[in-house]
Predict the 3D structure of the following.
Amino acid sequence: MKVICSKDELLKGMQLVQPVITSKATLPVLSNFLFETDGQKVKLSATDLEIGVNCYIKADVQKEGGVTIPAKRFADIIRELPNGDIEIKADETKQINIKSAKSKFTLMGIDKKEYPTLPEFPKENIIKIPAAVLNSLLKKTLFAVSKDEQRYVLNGVFLIIDKGEIKAVSTDGRRLAYICEKGLDAKISGKSIIPTKAVADILRLISLNESVEELTLGFSDNQIAVEIGDITFQANLIEGVFPNYEQVIPKKSNSKIKIKTEDMMAAVKQMAPLTSGKIASDKTSAIKLSFEKNRLAISANTAGLGSGETEIEIEYGGDQIDINFNPNYIKDILQNIEDPNVVFSYTTSQNPVVLTPESNENYICVVMPMR
């Protein structure tokens, strides 16, 4: 094999495939990526056996072939080379020669026959969706995914496609995020739980390909596949039954209060120094929201650290009510609201509270108060 690629193309390809490669690979070949010619392009592939990605880069293919290359060492070398063309050769011994200007390097690869074969992209059970829509669905729910490995069905985003609607849900048992997009040209229906790492990788690939307006989602057996331009990403789904999230979302509320998102975020951040650190614990690292006539007081009081309070003007004429929250849960929600105003709905100080953007009732965040 002999190809000539520009440094920019090689770095672009490595940026797409390298994050998939695990540093704790059980098989030596999984620390490598597959570098092979395909017509007048070069195809780069990587997998950790749960997630896989492949992409194409431009190249001058002078001799066809393929080999697996140690990913980290290759990327580190390419990154330090001068701008311009880079020659990459591999012989029958799987020795890889890298040449750029006056610099020469040699790496030992592994035969591409030893590399796992990535599944073909599904030809059926697929849906085309605007990249911005999928990005929004996943981004606005990822923060609420559970990190508790014992509750494995909660370790991902639950995706539901049905009757032209696509919904995404996540929960860790203390908070829940739900969003729905309607009006899609979807002829398929189904449910799947996408693992956290796969969700993060899909978001990363979308952000690296902002010029791609539409992508393709495909489902087969226990896998999800995403096609973004000339990039294909595949991941194993989480097997199991996601809990009935509809039971968690309150159907009614005693009060709905509109609050400026920016003001509330600033107030929560002001209290943050009093709710974190070695002295603060799960029981003490709370902020208190006190709804009073035309004002919302936000305070924190941690023994051994100190106390603080600030207030926001609001339109409220009900009875005074105090509700305690984990401040990080509120910050995560406010960061994803993307609306000047957040609507705060509650029934009692002990029941789940709902936060939604004023302009989008299809995005719902539920959070449990701290007792």
Remarks:
- The two ends are 65 Å apart (CA to CA).
- The chain has six helices and 25 strands.
- The chain has three domains: 2-114, 126-246, 249-367.
